[in-house]
Design the sequence.
């Protein structure tokens, strides 16, 4: 049986890596992001290398009409989506007291509302078919006092846990993937001044994060903190005062974004 996955934020970074790894498993794809040219280039490569079917759906998911179009694609029973990867996101680098409120609203819409909206569109069909998989890319910041970014990602973790508990026995598995720092081109877009001054060991490998996420989704793990370094740090973080955690979290503010 051929499966089909829809990946948001698929034009670069972690989203593109999810697309490559899914294509390597023989899974057909629907790629969603704002940059149609980059999506088409990736689709061309994946079709040629892996022989899978690839659709391109250009959408700024903070635009209500385009979000509705992606939701409609997820609800299309004639070409069902078996796997939903909610990956699109961005970060607001400015501190909370200096950020533009429009940017804060867009961040929360993309990071917490969009995964809910798309999961809501996908779940009924998955339940009717008796199987489905939803991977929501959250962040290790969800477990830290890390401003509005962490607050939005915390909502994604909570939603994922709830949907996993509610629907796993009916064949739908839901996972929140919580990476730490991932080196993607988002940092280049923000400029060198916004690169966190951290050693190489602090950065997780994009390929490893995607593989761990897909394995956790297959197992039905509700929440996975990706990369052994961040899993090791999570118990220690519970013992660290919030004031220090907030300072550490602000160092990596806005450090991963795709689509």
Sequence:
């Amino acid at each position: 049986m051929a499966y089909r996955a829809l990946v948001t934020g698929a034009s670069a970074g972690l989203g593109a890596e999810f697309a490559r790894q899914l294509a390597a498993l023989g899974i057909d794809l629907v790629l969603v992001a704002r940059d149609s040219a980059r999506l088409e280039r990736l689709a061309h490569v994946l079709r040629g290398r892996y022989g899978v079917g690839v659709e391109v759906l250009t959408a700024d998911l903070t635009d209500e009409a385009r979000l509705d179009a992606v939701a409609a694609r997820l609800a299309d029973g004639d070409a069902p989506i078996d796997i939903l990867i909610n990956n699109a996101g961005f970060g607001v680098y400015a501190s909370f007291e200096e950020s533009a409120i429009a940017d804060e609203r867009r961040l929360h819409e993309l990071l917490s509302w969009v995964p809910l909206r798309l999961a809501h569109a996908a779940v009924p069909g998955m339940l009717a078919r008796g199987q489905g998989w939803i991977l929501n890319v959250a962040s290790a910041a969800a477990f830290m006092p890390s401003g509005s970014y962490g607050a939005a990602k915390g909502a994604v973790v909570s939603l994922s846990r709830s949907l996993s508990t509610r629907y796993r026995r009916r064949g739908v598995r839901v996972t929140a993937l919580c990476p730490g720092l991932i080196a993607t081109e988002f940092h280049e877009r923000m400029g060198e001044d916004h690169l966190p001054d951290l050693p190489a060991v602090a950065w997780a490998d994009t390929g490893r994060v995607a593989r761990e996420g897909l394995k956790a989704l297959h197992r039905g793990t509700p929440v996975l903190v990706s990369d052994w370094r961040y899993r090791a740090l999570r118990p220690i973080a519970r013992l660290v005062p919030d004031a220090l955690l907030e300072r550490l979290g602000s160092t990596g503010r806005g450090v991963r974004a795709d689509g």
In short: The chain has nine helices and nine strands. Residues 186-194, 251-259 have pLDDT under 50 and may be disordered. The longest helix spans residues 101-129. The domain at 4-251 is CATH 3.40.50.720 (Rossmann fold).
